[in-house]
Structures are given as structure tokens and as C-alpha cells.
Write a structure and sequence with these properties.
The chain is an all-alpha fold. 82% of the residues lie in helices and 0% in strands.
Length: 83
């Protein structure tokens, strides 16, 4: 995401603060989700947890390419953190 900040900023007319939030959304959600998802990975089949993670990550990444507003991009970047 950081490599394409300038084109995204121009296309979606984002401020620097909004870009900072988009960049941080992934890290914040990943930090919050890592522990519970790690426990789920220990209690359930790791294969299914990885499968679901890759599916969520792929879907959120793909949908992030179709956004038109800051909040849409922010939400999909946050969901990428879960994946």
C-alpha cells in the first residue's frame, strides 16, 4: 500500500492524515486480531484457519481495488489485517 500512496492520494483525493489512517488500519487490526486468531488456530484445524485467512485476505485485497471513498478503502485495509 505504501508504494502506491501518491496515486491513491490523487485518485481518491485523500489528505495526508487519511493516508496515515489507511496505512495504519492493517497494523491496528492485525495487532488486535492476532491473539484471538492464534488461539483459534491452536484449537481448530490449522488448515481451515489458514484457508479462511487466505480467502478473507484475497477478497478484501480484491475489493480494495474497487473503492471510491476513504471509508471503503479504510474498511477493506482493516479486513486485510484480519486475513
Amino acid at each position: 500500500m505504501f508504494a502506491v500512496f501518491e496515486p491513491v492520494k490523487r485518485e481518491l483525493h485523500l489528505t495526508d492524515a487519511q493516508l496515515g489512517w489507511v496505512g495504519s488500519a492493517y497494523i491496528i487490526v492485525l495487532s488486535l486480531a492476532a491473539l484471538p486468531l492464534g488461539v483459534i488456530g491452536d484449537l481448530r484445524s490449522r488448515r481451515s484457519v489458514i484457508t479462511w485467512g487466505v480467502a478473507i485476505w484475497s477478497a478484501a485485497t480484491a475489493l480494495g481495488g474497487f473503492v471510491n471513498r476513504f471509508w471503503e478503502l479504510f474498511a477493506f485495509r482493516a479486513v486485510v489485517g484480519v486475513g
